[in-house]
Amino acid sequence: MSASQGPTLRELAVQALSSVEHGYDLLAPKFDHTPYRTPPPVLDAVTRTLRELGPFGSGLDLCCGTGAGIPVLRAVCRDRVTGVDFSAGMLAVGRARTDEAVDWIRADVRALPFAPAAFDLVVSFGAFGHFLPGERPGLFAQVRSVLGPGGRFAFPVAAPARPGSLGYWTLLGFDTAMRVRNAVWRPRFVMYYRDFRLAEVTRELADAGFRVDLYALDELGRRPDNSPRCRLVVATAV
């Protein structure tokens, strides 16, 4: 990521005091030069795993942003791929740098505007912190509705930071700052990544009609206890 091309502190402050949608509209032109974009090693590891499970027909990138996950879909899907997001600014950036083989749809993913069983594969990268825990069951039900039987819903999940580590305190500090911000400022900017716990998410996916499997993304390394630093959650519609 290039700091010189990324957003200034003032631009980040303006974004942080906006709604989620407007904040990403503002950030869109420089989003790909921030640490928020899913890094290539994660995308490559997910692509490798999905290739072993595919190929697939049509694919959807849920909360696609500027389209970091679109090349993953194009690598493993035979048919047309689609990106959906509620930020017009992020979609405009994605649309400007890809060809017409991708459909870019502006919509709230909590009410997906697609026919039942429209896709064979849905992926998502780094978006779930923007949904409150109470919203996830409805979101997962929406994803299930656009997948046919046997369709897959895949997304990477990093191992939680160990209590007391730098990563733990950094994430806790960020989460606390966001909660304080939302307590005193409107509109809210929802971004609570500590609420996305794998055990809870696995149960919610099962309740939505999925069978859940976990795949270690070994390219991203292992922790001292030999557990993977990142897993790919693959939920299969049943």
TrEMBL record:
<dbReference type="InterPro" id="IPR041698">
    <property type="entry name" value="Methyltransf_25"/>
</dbReference>
<feature type="domain" description="Methyltransferase">
    <location>
        <begin position="60"/>
        <end position="151"/>
    </location>
</feature>
<keyword id="KW-0808">Transferase</keyword>
<dbReference type="InterPro" id="IPR029063">
    <property type="entry name" value="SAM-dependent_MTases_sf"/>
</dbReference>
<dbReference type="GO" id="GO:0032259">
    <property type="term" value="P:methylation"/>
</dbReference>
<dbReference type="GO" id="GO:0008168">
    <property type="term" value="F:methyltransferase activity"/>
</dbReference>
<protein>
    <submittedName>
        <fullName>Class I SAM-dependent DNA methyltransferase</fullName>
    </submittedName>
</protein>
<dbReference type="Pfam" id="PF13649">
    <property type="entry name" value="Methyltransf_25"/>
</dbReference>
<keyword id="KW-0489">Methyltransferase</keyword>
